[in-house]
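Forwarding these from the shared drive since the link keeps breaking.
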Amino acid sequence: MAPAAALLPLAPSPSHPNPPRRPLCRCAASRRGLAVHTAIAIASTAAAAAAAGAGEAPSPSPPPMPETPAGAPPAKPGGVLGGIANTRSWSQYYGSGFSIRVPPSFDDILEPEDFNAGTTYYGDKVKPRAYAARFASPDRDELISVVIKPSNQLKITFLEAKDITDLGTLKEASKIFVPAGAKVYSARTIKVKDEEDVRTYYFYEFGLDKQHVALMATVDSGKTYIAGATAPETKWDADGVKLRTCAQLLYLFPFHSCAETGYRTD
């Protein structure tokens, strides 16, 4: 199946005044909630395994992409994005070079130690930051996460990746973002017009271990930005549109001008 592509007009990007510093929120996340497979953890693990084994054995075949029968009728309303939730009441979260939309009922569960990760003092070893952002529903069954990784950790190369197509085609990159054994429901190439250019994103939706995952990824200046939303398959029918929207509304700033992280409600 040839990957579908859409050129999405983007609303004028918000001005980026220094947003208010985000209050530290220590939420009582359950052990079960934190142990649930998130889209980001799955993608990161699969990517690390692929990079580590690149020089030892041939990489496994990418998960099969969903087929579209010849002569199939046009897609149902919702188009390429499969339906977008109304985000008028959602918060706009600003991270390091990116922003996402977060439903009002979701709690910030970024661990306190993650705020200082990635910094070093007097030659101390830098601790990698696991998540750039992380939110959970009140019952901790539904998770929204953002991870930023150097692109050369996902695909061995001496060149700086400037676009996600540098990691391969939609199908080739699925080896990085979709774990082996997952059932792929949807895979799309999405093009978004921003202030500078047209940015390419890869979107994957798949199921694994009774979890349903929606994942959006893009590349900028040698860094790969991955936004993922996950929930049990039993809850996806009710909340899938909302969670899919969270992943698909990942947005990168043309210039990484937002020095602080935080959020605001429009």
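-- next protein --
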Amino acid sequence: MSLDRLALNLKGIEHKTEWIQYCDIEKRFKELDIPPSEIRSSGTPAYTIPAIYDSSTNARISDSVKILEYLDSAYPDAPKLLDPGTEVLTTVFAWAVRQNMRRPTWPLAAPNTVISGLDGPSSTKYRGNFEAWAKYDVEEVKRNPVLYDKVWKDAEEGYGTVDGWLKAASKGTTSDEPAAGPWITGKDIKLADIILAADLAWPVAVFGEDSEEWKRIGGWNDGRWREYWGLFKQYAVVH
């Protein structure tokens, strides 16, 4: 679940999803003349979803933060998600959340993704990317109980780190003053909230909302993640 889908639904912008095989992302981007999401340190382009094409302006954009910046600019009557001057801070927050939530969850999610989530060449490519990063094969997590316990522990610690940030952010101008609303900055949803929701949507999609895995993750930190996803799931509809 991309944060851009959550943002489009939150803003009420009509859109249609085009699904792309994992192994065909670069090919399809080039066919549609969509620029790469980033340029690697080696100088080679990286093509990653999500991306959007807006027929009303002929805009073709990849990279989630750039897409959100565009939506705020092109659709000024919809709720704003980025406050001026917060772009760098938001990018850093997105990186930090990814390192503490998505990365440690990847070893848990990879077996389901490879075995039942993707087909043929896409599954093979995904497996290769994961195993190059993890330095062990996809099935090893479930085959090795010591590794299985470790990756769950690492994931819980990562979520706990983010929970600590949110607890600090929930304070007002004094330590006894509560936050003004359920979101990171108060009453209004901002991009930082969507970044968190997108990283929660991923294990929900991979494992299923009724799965023991999601119940375990959602229950961490006094049920914060289950509650947070409950606030956001209305915006996860696929069009």
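The mean pLDDT is 90. The two ends are 12 Å apart (CA to CA).

- D.
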